[in-house]
Amino acid sequence: MSASLLEVCAWDAEDPLREVAARFVRPEGLIYLDGNSLGAAPVDAYGRLEAAVAGEWAQGLVRSWNGADWIGAPARIGAKIAHLIGARPSEVVVADSTSVNLFKLLVAALQRQAPRGVILSEPGEFPTDLYVAQGVAATLPGVSLRLLPAEELVAAIGADVGVVMLTHVHYRTGARRDMAAITQRAREAGALVIWDLSHSAGAVQVDLAGARAELAVGCGYKYLNGGPGAPAYLYVAERRQAELSSPLTGWMGHDDPFEFGDVYRPAAGMDRFLVGTPPMLSMLALECGVDQFEGVDMAAVEAKARRLCSLFIERVEDRCGGHGLQLITPCAPARRGGHVSFTHPDAYAIMQALIERGVIGDFRGPDVLRCGFAPLYTRFEDVWRAVEVLAEVLNTDAWRDPRYQTRARVT
After folding, report:
1. C-alpha closest to that of 253 among 302, 319, 245
2. Which of 18, 47, 130, 180 has the least CB density, counted as fewest CB within 10 Å?
3. pTM value?
4. Which candidate, 256, 254, 253, places its Cα nearest to that of 275?
5. Residues 6 or more apart from 299 whose CB is under 8 A from it?
6. Which helix (H) or strand (E) holds 368?
7. Would you state the pLDDT for residue 411?
8. Do residues 234 and 93 make contact, with C-beta atoms less than 8 angstroms apart?
9. Can 221 be counted among the known catalytic residues?
10. Dist. CA 170–CA 176, nearest whole Å
11. Could you tell me which of 410, 334, 358, 373 has the C-alpha nearest to residue 15?
12. Is residue 196 annotated as part of the catalytic site, yes or no?
């Protein structure tokens, strides 16, 4: 039997993160369980962006590149993210999108690893990662993408594998990989691993240094609450920075961008992975999102994420049995991230019925109901009440209404 409403309200009262929730906008009448897709807006974002537009842009104009340290934003914000992923401040920089950063690191790693030209990954990985890898393989001679099931992948890291590309927490199932073990196996085989932390950072503890990980990317708009389309970040361990060269040699990656010379010279450290002019309003919104983790213990964040996920699983099994939902997220808390997924043949329609009733999760094709639990602002009571709404939708067959069957462009 799952916990009662009285019990979960007591959990909220005792939650060490309960005061942090006030830092975020919580629309009245909504239960938001999609922070793994788009994080909630920080209350501070309004004032920060207004100050940036009205002051730094409108009044400071071009002077703000120096006066407001716009030029230092990629490294400054990267250092703040480094604290959340177990990296040194000098190992993370904010730039571009996750896809572009993955392209940079894949090409840089493959050039370093030549003639080992195989990118090894798993079928069903996050699609954009696979698409980028396919594009790299189609562009670089001697490079190919090899996909193997998870249970076969680690043992297949052989002499021809240059790069292993994996997500730390799987976007669809929520399964969490053993970063340290896989990184060690790849290192022993002479391969590099690129980790995608998009569904990890801000929801669970990540220790890149402890795992001796060397390369990683991640997005800024999920658990980091940077806003829609927020800039992404990339990580390169200090010991690898000098030997990797970005294939995108834009002016911000130059050793002296304002020298305006004709010949490219890569900057030292992480700056060499910058390309174009930083999108400052988006950068500052991301910084505001990351700043909400100030003073927050990531161990407490992961502990709450585990408990939120467990409560959701227990409640769904208790209240929604017999309706065809199948759990695909690992039951063991240590083997999952911050979201939970169930499959159902009519998952899309069920999610649309939930959204109309004020419970926002998301659908992932072809048949996944996915709910994410952002520990900074998701309450235990939110989870309890969300499952009550799900039970009502299933018990009344409300999801069969024809208006829930037509798919929107964004699902």
Report:
1. 245
2. 47
3. 0.97
4. 253
5. 205
6. strand 368-372
7. 84
8. yes
9. yes
10. 6
11. 373
12. yes
Q: Is 370 a catalytic residue?
A: yes
Handedness of CA 244, 247, 248, 249 (dihedral sign): positive
Task: State residue 2's pLDDT score.
Answer: 78
- Given a contact cutoff of 8 angstroms between Cβ atoms, the answer to whether 95 and 232 are in contact is yes
Q: Is 233 considered catalytic here?
A: no
Task: From the candidates 196, 271, 362, 382, give the one annotated as an active-site residue.
Answer: 196
Q: Which of 24, 32, 171, 221 is catalytic?
A: 221
- Of these residues, 272, 306, 336, 370, which one is catalytic? 370
DSSP reduced 3-state for 289:
helix
**CATH top-level class of 5-42+297-404:** alpha beta
In degrees, rounded to 5, the angle at the alpha carbon of residue 334 between the alpha carbons of residues 290 and 179 is 70
Tell me: the pLDDT tens digits for 56-94? 999 999 999 999 999 999 999 999 999 999 999 999 999
DSSP code, position 57: I
- Asked whether the predicted pLDDT for residue 409 surpasses 80, the reply is yes
In angstroms, the CA 397 to CA 102 distance is 43
Provide the residue type at 162 as one letter: G
At position 16, the amino acid (one-letter code) is P
User: How many Cβ atoms are within 10 Å of 256's Cβ, its own excluded?
Assistant: 10
Which structure tokens are listed for 215?
A: 């390369």
Q: Which fold has domain 48-291?
A: Aspartate Aminotransferase; domain 2 (3.40.640)
What is the residue extent of each domain of the chain?
5-42+297-404, 48-291
Catalytic residue among 104, 116, 176, 222: 222
